[in-house]
Amino acid sequence: MKFSLAFSPCPNDTFIFDALVNQKIDTHGISFDVYLEDVQTLNEWALQGKMDFSKISYGVWKKVQQQYNLLNSGGALGKGVGPLLITQPGKFKAAFTEKDPTIYSNAVCADAVNNMTIAIPGENTTAHLLFSLAYPNATKKVFKVFHEIENAVLNGEVDAGVIIHENRFTYEARGLAKIIDLGAYWEETQQLPIPLGGIIAKKTIDPAIIQQVDALIKESIEYAFANYPTVAPYVIEHAQEMSEEVMRQHIDLYVNNFSLDLGIQGLQAVEKLTSI
Q1: Rounded to the nearest 10 degrees, what angle do helices 11-21 and 207-226 cross at?
Q2: Which of 44, 94, 211, 215 maximizes the CB count within 10 A of its CB?
């Protein structure tokens, strides 16, 4: 049996799916046509019902629940894993006065952010949802592919940007500064881990097959962990020229016990996010 499967080229996703899609584990006759795309494209495909199995942002989950089931394995959820709002250092120093701009509850900071033009990594992403929760009155938004946002901030195309994935590990080296950790805002206000993205399966697929694929994804992750910290060639191939150190940072941050199984707390976090 062959199904379509889509996920991002980011190290956490390729780490998770390597053993499954490259037959390093026994897949019991199940194989996949694999498509690697940025998260916003994956979200758009999910809205169209294009893939049999796919990674999505939890920001779009509410909109695709009629067509898809959510799997327990393969997702990105945890603590300290949220998107960051960054800008050029000192650019809004006057607006922030002498207050710490990383304190999201500061009204002066909120007023300054509300007047900024902000680059967001896709309209239906969890990053956009988390930003909107922290800054509901910020309306000057520009939607971009996630890897374009750092440059947009650096060249002044936008005042600030919400960054995800490996950009969390590169923005400081490029001379940019954090305004707020949007994940920390979620954790402190909701007392729950941050649900970033999950794996979905079309409801038209036999439930027994969905359950089997879910188990295979978990087995694929266990295989990857058993061979870590060696970075598999499949991960390196799709890692967009980042160093192996950054790849490992990426994997260490986004792949954890919640990736193996959402569990009760993970499901509570997803339900909370999608109810807002």
Answers
A1: 110
A2: 44
